Each structure stands twice: as structure tokens, then as C-alpha cells.
Automatic annotation (TrEMBL):
This is DNA polymerase III subunit beta. Gene3D superfamilies: Beta Polymerase, domain 2 (3.30.460.10). GO terms for molecular function: nucleotidyltransferase activity. It holds the Pfam family NTP_transf_2. InterPro entries: NT_sf (IPR043519), Polymerase_NTP_transf_dom (IPR002934). Residues 41-78 form the Polymerase nucleotidyl transferase domain. It comes from Clostridium manihotivorum.
């Protein structure tokens, strides 16, 4: 009888730690669903807490929406390798500057993932979020957050400015296709300012998002060595205009 109670207690503790909270997600595409299922299984097998943020958590995602995730727990080289390639090799990778050190993975099937790997989560971060996996050993609620940028840079080398500008272009296009027009135009202005650091200052715009963003991309493509896969990624997005 004591052994039965022990097993029952262990099961309750496991269920309490590992419970999937609020797992009612409206997926805009099957690709979004496939990615969430893949990373959920991975985090579960590695006992990493997993929190979904952004439009998917709010139920407002479109087929072009990012997947915003926070991961809590100890990660090593092998885990980072698997996290980056869990859905195949991404076409583009980057670390954000504002906010700092979010890992961006852009895949060629309209899936873009923001992975925020850290040691704790704040109360503000928990607002409008879905806790998919929760482990008491690493689900730490604390306003004092820390990230290991040097560790991540072992995998995501510092990118040149033109590459970072392409990342901004991608973000702007995704926002535009998600009907977030004001945000997309604000990003377009930021992109135009960034062009000065690339010594591109002779462009003439007509203040139409679709025309200007393709015009800028084509100029960067002509000036720098843009990978064929990145070209294909953007051409596919531009075809949605």
C-alpha cells in the first residue's frame, strides 16, 4: 500500500510540474502547429519550461505571424544545436538588439521563430502568455533576468549590417502581410535610416511600402553577396503582395 501511495504521489508531482496549461491555440497554418508540437516534445524530453507569447498566445495570429517563445532551463551546446535545427536548418539566423539577445530563426516555409532563452521570467512576461510546460526546477519568476550572449554567439556569429538590415526588411514584410500597416511603415523608415550605414544614400522612394521595400532589397542584393536561399525566401514573400 505504501508503494502504491508513493507511486501515486510521484505521478501527482510529475503531473503538477509537467502540466500543459491553457493549451488551446488557434493555429493559422499547419506549419505553425507542427513547429509548436516539435518544440513542445523537445522541451518536454529535456525538462525545459516553455512559454508561448505574442499573437499565437493571444489568438490573433495570421499565417505570417512569428512564433514567440520563452525557454527556461539549463541549456548546453547540444541543446542549442537541436533547438536551432529542430525544424530543419533555418534560412536566416540572428540575435536581436532591442530587446537584447533573442534568437531569431527564419525558415523558408513562412515560419519565423523568436526564441528567448533565459534563466527567469517576469510577471509582465507572463501576461498574455500561455505556459505550455512548467518545471519547478527552472520556472523562476523574477524581474532580474540574465542571458548568456557570449554563449549564443558561438552559434550565431555577429552579422554584418547589411544582413541585419535584411532581417529588418523581413520583419517589416511579415508585419505588412499580417495587416499591421503602421508597424510595417515604421520599420520601413528604420530600414531607410540603416541604409546610410551601408553607404546607400542615392535611392529615390515613392512612399509605397510594397515598391520601396522591394527596391531596397534589390539594391542590397546587388551590393552584397546575398545567399540564393535568402533570395528565394524574399521573392516568395514579395509574391504575396
Amino acid at each position: 500500500m505504501d508503494e502504491v501511495r508513493k507511486i501515486g504521489t510521484q505521478f501527482k508531482n510529475y503531473f503538477k510540474e509537467n502540466i500543459l496549461f491553457n493549451f488551446e491555440i488557434t493555429y493559422p497554418t499547419q506549419e505553425h502547429k507542427n513547429y509548436i508540437e516539435a518544440i513542445y516534445k523537445f522541451c518536454k524530453s529535456n525538462r525545459l519550461s516553455l512559454i508561448l507569447k505574442g499573437s499565437l498566445a493571444k489568438g490573433t495570429a495570421t499565417k505570417f505571424s512569428d512564433i514567440d517563445l520563452i525557454i527556461l532551463g539549463e541549456v548546453d551546446n547540444f541543446i542549442i544545436d537541436d533547438l536551432i535545427t529542430i525544424y530543419g536548418n533555418p534560412v536566416m539566423t540572428n540575435l536581436t538588439e532591442n530587446p537584447k539577445d533573442i534568437l531569431i530563426l527564419v525558415h523558408n516555409n513562412n515560419i519565423t521563430v523568436d526564441l528567448d532563452i533565459r534563466n527567469a521570467i517576469s510577471e509582465d512576461d507572463l501576461k498574455d502568455s500561455l505556459v505550455l510546460l512548467k518545471y519547478s526546477t527552472n520556472f523562476i519568476v523574477d524581474k532580474n533576468l540574465s542571458k548568456n550572449r557570449a554563449f549564443l554567439l558561438n552559434y550565431i556569429l555577429e552579422k554584418p549590417n547589411w544582413y541585419k538590415t535584411l532581417r529588418l526588411i523581413h520583419r517589416a514584410v511579415i508585419k505588412y502581410l499580417s495587416n499591421k500597416i503602421d508597424t510595417s511603415y515604421n520599420l520601413l523608415e528604420e530600414i531607410k535610416e540603416n541604409l546610410f550605414s551601408l553607404h546607400i544614400n542615392d535611392l529615390e522612394y515613392n512612399n509605397n511600402f510594397e515598391d520601396d521595400i522591394q527596391y531596397i532589397f534589390n539594391r542590397i542584393n546587388a551590393e552584397f553577396e546575398v545567399d540564393d536561399k535568402i533570395n528565394a525566401l524574399f521573392n516568395n514573400l514579395f509574391s504575396k503582395f
